Amino acid sequence: MRTLVKSSVLMFGALGTSLLRADQFHWNNLVVGERAMGLGGAFCAVADDASAIIYNPAGIAFALSNDVTGSANAFYKKQVTYKKALGTKDFVERSGGTLAPFFGGMQKMDSLTKGLAFAFGLYTIDSELKDQDDTISNLGSLDRFHRTANIRSSTTGAGAAVAKRFGSNFSAGLSLSVITIDELVQEYQDVSYTNQSYLSQNFRTQLSGSGLDAGLGVQYALGTWSLGLVVKLRHLLSDSYDVGLDRRTNRDDTGNPGTIEVSQVDQKIEGALGALPTEVRAGVAWFPTTDLLWTFDLIYEGQAKSEKLPTIYNRQAVTNFATGAEYYITPSIPLRVGTFTNYDARPKLVKGKTGQLDHVDYLGQTLFLGWVQPNSQVAGGLIYQGGKGEAQKVQSEKIQTVEAQSYTFAISATHSF
Amino acid sequence: MRFVKLQTLLFWTLLGCVRSSEMTLSAEPPLTAEQKNQLEEAQSEMDIGRNMAGRILRLYGTHGDEGLTQYVNEVGVLVSRSSDFSDRRYMFEIYKSDSVNAFACPGGYILISLGAIKLAKSEAELAHILGHEITHVGKKHMLKALQKMNKEELDRAAAKDTEQETPETVLIRKRPEPEESLTGATLARYLTGNSAGFNVIKAAKAGMALMLEKGLGAELEFDADREGTRYAIQAGYHPKALMNFLCRIETSRGRPKSYCLSGGEVEQKPLTVLDKTHPKVPDRIVQIQGVLATLKADEIVGAYGKKRFKEAKKRLKNPEIGSEAL
Hints:
The structure holds 2 protein chains of 2 kinds.
Chain A: H1 2-10, H2 34-38, H3 52-55, E1 67-86, E2 89-108, E3 116-139, E4 142-166, E5 170-193, E6 198-222, E7 225-251, E8 257-270, E9 279-289, E10 292-301, H4 310-313, E11 318-330, E12 333-342, E13 359-373, E14 376-391, E15 400-416
Antiparallel strand pairs in A: 1-2, 1-15, 2-3, 3-4, 4-5, 5-6, 6-7, 7-8, 7-9, 9-10, 10-11, 11-12, 12-13, 13-14, 14-15
Chain B: H1 2-27, H2 33-60, H3 66-81, E1 91-95, E2 102-105, E3 109-113, H4 114-119, H5 123-138, H6 141-148, H7 151-163, H8 168-171, H9 182-192, H10 200-214, H11 218-234, H12 241-252, H13 257-262, H14 273-277, H15 281-294, H16 306-313
Parallel strand pairs in B: 1-3
Antiparallel strand pairs in B: 2-3
Helix pairs in contact in B: 1-2, 2-10, 3-5, 5-11, 5-12, 7-10, 11-15, 12-15
């Protein structure tokens, strides 16, 4: 079964040894949470709002107020450019959309037990909508290549956290989320060659999965400093990879016109994704004055192996970092800036091989301005990610340079009570 | 939960009054600047009081017995109708604490402790306590105290409330106090119903600090004792019920009755919230005796309502209070 799928993927037309795919290989595609977004996701040693479910559940035990937060990424746009993939021409893939990455609330429960707090959250850590339509004519042996491709993908979570402060310096917290993965890829190709051979195919894959994300975090406060550590264990409850292919070609193994071949594939592979990575996140925060905050996180994502589809879903361990600063220009206007990495969990490409997956490492920057009122605040800003890497977009040993950019305009509102 | 319902009901009722008066007035000539100010102040008062009441109930919890709460409301409403502020609406709630105390939050939210009900021996005593709190609300003692504070004092008092029992390691995360802008206030008014031009949360926090730590001051407490006594008497209750209740506070903590009537040196006891925020009982008794003399109380026949009160208290598992709770 695995061989059949692999061969289907590898025979994927002139363009597309690297099948269009949603992203299960970067762990920092969307930064969520009102303050966390601005700080580039460096929030493990702070995490005193509902986004603690993601960054460190122990943080809510240090919260000063109860909050309800909603964030909306009003606009999201991404462009990946495969340099000189088509002779001297670049090949460009674009995606975009709108999404709401976070809604959550936090409630202190000192009346039950001093230092006890509870939070809930619904969050989206990855989302992509891609509508691609490419037509290429008169390129080498290609007479005409036409491809339309659509991707709808999202990774969402819903969870809760509870934390308790012990004494004034130390807190511990637990979080539990249910993760849902849904990636649908539909692609149609119609290829005609100068030697009268042709290839026509419809390809559809859907990755569906659900899992549990359990976090155990601690925070330790020391004067104006705070230290945070969280371990997140993830367990896939179920996952499946559906493949559907309808293909018609008269092209033989040598590339010349031959007998017409019609093939169909309809497979369901259980356990294709195999695993989700364990995350260890360590952070430090410094509160030198009420106006200023500096944070730094180191995030280790362990490897996640797939026995059923190792060529696609074997993911290597990566270590990302994030750092951010918050400065109140006036008591009502905080400025938040952050920098973070979003490294690729796929292996780097090596020369002499074919059918290798893309590898693109991103560096992100965030810039947010807030407007704070006594019981509420709104914040808006931009998250930019610039990526560089390599890919084999064309079915050969040739490796292309990849440049990628994504822009996310995000707005968020919080009400404290 | 029931308090939330009551609170919500009262809020919408009060808001309905304000809104309906707005609607009624909209058919009339436009509001003058003074009328607008009065309307805004009324909204502020309700917002602050509601917030404070919520904070107290979050701190202590509600007693939760609907029958007993309804009874307290009936007595409270009866006294309020005989007060100088009968046009106001009040909500009475019992909070879960064996300490003897009661709180009057702006806007008519009056909270009495379970301990106070346990210590009381008659409906008349309950009526006098509620009369005292109705005076605080009607004369806007708390609201005026907050309005007298300048920004720095308000900030300090609000911070004190936040900082109470909050470790330094948590306070280090505090961000600057935001400046409320006209736009923000206007948005808040339409989005949350909060009034403009007055920082409700900050005022409520400052009010909590006053209520739990500093108190309103001896003069306002004496005033509430005098007027509350008068209202309870006008409602038909026995004139000396408050005196009896206050004396019982002292005797139940082991002090002689002579102390409450004439003062003097007594053994020091740990300070309760009531001690910290109110004048000494002997001094209060003097004030009450003064008003009783003015009203010729000896000639007034008032009801104790002991039987009814005893019946209501049957709902409590432990209807009597121990001296350690004081």
